[in-house]
Recover the amino acids of this structure.
């Protein structure tokens, strides 16, 4: 069974946790730009976190379900509809076979995620389903998805409950543009004069429109390198802030190549990279320098926090018995399936009646 | 962040510098320049980590003079990894050169090797002399990067050093054999390139559908064997039919 793509926004691709273990052969990781948001979408649909889902920017598109499934949209608030029904981002919804889900504009975020129960079951390429556009790896023929594509779906192995986080949110943590993006200096901070390193922390930078899955260019003061802007090429990680001869910093993102020849003044910490990816174009931001040791502590705490969010999903039935919600969880085309909404409470009332 | 002072002379035999690369990777840097000895140490350390893994280490990316090591700080903190790597480096056995050797067939000139005649003219050589120089060279794979399976080759004879084009060409096919600055290359995927191209190999350095998707690895030795256009086409057909798999001369 499949998910049919009827229309798309400017960029829709299959992503997962990315391709690992082959960086020494020049294979970039790819994978979700905002992994915590994609993990939440998968968890809401009862999927393993490593399942493949769809990533979009600006506008999702419209999708026809080839079978009954649950679907969740995360990353930011978003206009989601099935016919007249308006659905909330950040929780899963039951979709009947043949129904069309329309996913509109993402608000206050850059990358949205659409997970469906069972996951997107395109074949793995080099150990992952993630699409790398430039090298045409993974996904559907290594390209952005387009109208007419039929995506194979995996087996569901869950009880089919619609879920939401205990504290409802379209992403497991705020993007918080006012909070600084934390960085660890290096590996080539010694290419830059002390006053330039200081400027890195005091200046404000703006997210420029030159951004994609490979890199984000930041507008702001130039960061000239005293020792020049060419190094003997070395290894690169996502989050690296490289500075070419223009002096304009560029943060390398999920699709970045594995090696490069520009000095890298600093590296965005793992816990803050998804927030940076989500900042809207034109947003202002600033950096804050932390030590490697502190960055590692932050990463471990952030992982624990995300685990806690995903471990405390609750049935979306619990507190939200609005008519819109009831309709969104219907499992039988227009007729509300009582068990899906009421769960044990219904059994209890029947027992009491008996 | 430089944790240990650089050796000012960039002597690759000195203790390496450990550079923080965020919270999940670090670089072990042996000197500041392209140097076969530094590269041997990089590759020896990568091999040591493959043969005797450190729990918590995820991946290694060998480059010219630096080894990127990624790790999971839940299992191994950066400071502890640095200490463990310093110990490894101190005991590192850098073998003379127990490398695999590749004999790569090349059709020189033609549609893909479009720069052959111009380059020969620029260097006051005949095309035959240029081919002779290029195919006599003993290349070393310094690193794989830029694109999946793309090998950066050291050992290009000085007479063939050529700057890159100021404006890259938009589409150079996989298999194109190129020259960029002081290095040689074999294009592994079709794409834009500012390098100059002297020939084409029917071999595919990267084929995701092949059991072993990548032919070359850092540390391999390589030289080019001139073949005719007809031989090149035959090799391509045999590869496509699965009758032939490129194989190296085994490591000594």
């Amino acid at each position: 069974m499949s998910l049919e793509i009827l229309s798309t926004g400017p960029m829709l691709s299959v992503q997962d946790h990315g391709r690992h273990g082959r960086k020494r052969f020049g294979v970039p990781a790819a994978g979700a730009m905002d992994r915590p948001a994609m993990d939440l979408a998968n968890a809401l649909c009862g999927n393993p976190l490593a399942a493949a889902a769809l990533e979009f920017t600006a506008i999702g598109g419209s999708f026809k379900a080839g079978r009954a499934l649950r679907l969740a949209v995360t990353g930011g608030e978003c206009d989601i509809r099935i016919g007249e029904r308006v659905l909330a981002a950040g929780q899963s919804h039951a979709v009947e076979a043949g129904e069309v889900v329309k996913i509109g504009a993402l608000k206050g975020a850059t990358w949205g995620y659409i997970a469906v129960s069972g996951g997107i079951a395109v074949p793995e390429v080099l150990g992952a389903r993630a699409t790398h556009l430039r090298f045409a790896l993974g996904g559907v023929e290594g390209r952005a998805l387009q109208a007419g594509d039929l995506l194979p779906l995996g087996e569901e192995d869950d009880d089919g409950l619609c879920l939401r986080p205990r504290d409802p949110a379209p992403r497991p943590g705020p993007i918080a543009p006012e909070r600084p993006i934390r960085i660890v200096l290096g590996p080539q901070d010694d290419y830059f004069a002390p006053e330039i390193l200081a400027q890195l922390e005091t200046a404000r930078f703006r997210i420029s429109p030159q951004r994609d899955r490979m890199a984000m260019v930041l507008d702001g003061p130039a960061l000239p390198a005293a020792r020049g802007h060419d190094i003997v090429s070395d290894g690169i990680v996502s989050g690296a802030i490289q500075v070419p001869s223009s002096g304009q910093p560029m943060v390398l993102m999920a699709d970045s190549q594995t090696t490069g020849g520009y000095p890298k003044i600093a590296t965005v910490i793992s816990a803050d990279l998804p927030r940076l990816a989500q900042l809207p174009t034109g947003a202002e931001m600033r950096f804050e320098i932390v030590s490697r040791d502190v960055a590692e502590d932050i990463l471990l705490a952030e992982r624990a926090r995300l685990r806690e969010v995903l471990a405390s999903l609750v049935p979306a039935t619990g507190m939200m018995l609005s008519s819109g919600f009831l309709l969104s969880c219907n499992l039988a085309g227009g007729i509300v399936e009582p068990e899906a909404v009421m769960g044990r409470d219904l059994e209890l009332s029947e027992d009491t009646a008996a | 962040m430089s944790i240990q002072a650089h050796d000012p002379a960039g002597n690759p035999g000195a203790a390496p510098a450990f550079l923080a690369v965020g919270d999940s990777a670090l670089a072990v840097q042996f000197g500041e320049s392209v140097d076969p000895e530094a590269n041997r140490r990089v590759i020896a350390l990568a091999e040591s980590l493959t043969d005797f893994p450190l729990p918590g280490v995820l991946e290694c990316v060998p480059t010219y003079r630096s080894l990127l090591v990624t790790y999971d700080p839940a299992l191994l903190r950066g400071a502890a990894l640095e200490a463990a790597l310093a110990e490894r480096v101190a005991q590192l056995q850098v073998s003379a050169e127990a490398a695999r050797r590749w004999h790569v067939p090349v059709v020189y000139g033609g549609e893909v090797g479009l720069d052959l005649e111009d380059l020969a003219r620029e260097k006051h050589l005949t095309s035959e002399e240029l081919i002779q120089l290029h195919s006599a060279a003993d290349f070393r794979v310094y690193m794989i990067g830029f694109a999946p399976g793309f090998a950066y080759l050291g050992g290009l004879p000085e007479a063939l050093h050529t700057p890159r084009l100021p404006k890259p060409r938009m589409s150079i096919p996989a298999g194109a054999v190129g020259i960029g600055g002081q290095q040689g290359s074999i294009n592994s995927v079709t794409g834009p390139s500012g390098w100059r191209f002297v020939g084409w190999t029917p071999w595919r350095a990267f084929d995701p559908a092949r059991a072993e998707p990548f032919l070359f690895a850092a540390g391999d030795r390589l030289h080019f064997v001139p073949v005719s256009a007809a031989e090149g086409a035959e090799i391509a057909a045999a590869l496509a039919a699965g009758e032939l798999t490129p194989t190296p001369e085994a490591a000594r």
Q: What stands out?
A: The first strand of chain A starts at residue 2 and ends at 8.
